[in-house]
Amino acid sequence: MLIVGIAGGTGSGKTTVVRKVIERLPKEQIAVISQDSYYRDNSHLPLEERQEINFDHPSSLEFELLIKHLKMLKAGKSIQEPIYSYLTCTRHAETNLVKPCDVVIIEGILIFTNEDLRNLFDIKVFVHADADDRLERVIKRDIIERGRSVDKVLERYQRSVKPMHLQFIEPSMRYADLIIPQGGHNLVAIDILCSIIEKNFFTGLK
Asked: What is the pTM of this model?
């Protein structure tokens, strides 16, 4: 099993990179796990407090469970990946079944900040984008997908997203084996990543 970690700032284009990699490789042999699924369940808190959680700080994640699940997959066991709702800031009762496969891609902003998790990755990729581009994508995403107003998005960006990026996410780029500038627009870097994966598991795949 090849485990690929794809990190980068909020709105950097990680999801686009993952999608383009999947398009190039056999879907039945790849599983994608999102760091976002492993945000801690906050159902014990009032909704007002949940909405103020700093999702860009490592403490917001249950790394222990993610690490356990990756080790289970490597051991040939299926896992029940949590499903997290940004609207309620809680986990759903349902889970997502993930079966062992040849390639597992883990995607998230903070996955390189945890040493134990980082050591499980065979390939570490950091998707880099300018701050202005990331902010534009964050505004669009949070309004459409998470029901936030522009004012709320900008307030959160200044209060937590930007400082956490500078404190935790940007420094974690030094652990990357491959850096992809311009996110999903960098087709050359994506080709290189796909070639590395193909070389390991899909030799001869066209």
From this structure: 0.88
Read off the pLDDT of residues 20-52 as tens digits, 9 standing for 90 and up: 999 888 888 899 999 999 999 888 888 788 878
Please give the Cα distance from 3 to 106 (Å, whole number).
7
Q: Are strands 123-128 and 103-107 parallel, antiparallel or unpaired?
A: unpaired
Taking Cα atoms as reference points, which of 108, 98, 112, 87 lies closest to residue 173? 112
Query: Which DSSP letter does residue 165 get?
Result: I
pLDDT at position 147, please?
A: 62
Question: Which domains can be identified in the chain, with CATH numbers?
Answer: 2-201 (3.40.50.300)
Q: Which tens digit of pLDDT belongs to each residue from 184-201?
A: 789 999 999 999 988 876
Q: Which residues contact residue 114 at a Cβ distance below 8 angstroms, ignoring those fewer than 6 apart?
A: 58, 61, 63, 67
Q: By C-alpha distance, which of 185, 43, 14 is closest to 105?
A: 14
Phi and psi at 52, nearest 5°, equal: -105, 5
> What DSSP state is assigned to residue 62?
-
